Amino acid sequence: MIQEFKDFINKGNIIEMAVGVVMAFAFKPVIDRFVDGILMQFVGLIFGQPDFERLTFTVDETDFYYGAVITALVSFLCVAVAVFFVLKAYNATKADEEADSGPSETELLTEIRDSLANR
Predict the structure, then answer these.
(1) In terms of pTM, does the model score above 0.70?
(2) DSSP labels for 42-100?
(3) Domain that includes residue 10, residue range
(4) pLDDT in tens, 5-36
(5) Which CATH number goes with the domain that contains 14?
């Protein structure tokens, strides 16, 4: 069982996932500042206020803060948009790197085959 656990921990996916989680926690403040400082300000321009926390309704002397839910949903959508654009930019740079990486494995094997056939 200990060997099985060691094999599980030593798999590359676990390490990659751990690095991804650490990077996500490090990147979170950047996304939060972008959402709060820029995207939510556009929401404020459109709706008159970037924060809906004060929107409530009362039933039998109980306040329901539906504005907090609206703010959380709008914030979530803004974070999703920000992450989408970051990933889109990242994937574009990855595509450029892959295009510049040279011949594919199949092309290299074909060249080797052809050069051996020409001998």
Answers:
(1) no
(2) HHHHHHS-S--TT--EEETTEEE-HHHHHHHHHHHHHHHHHHHHHHHHHHHHHHHHHHT
(3) 2-118
(4) 877 777 767 777 888 888 888 888 888 888 88
(5) 1.10.1200
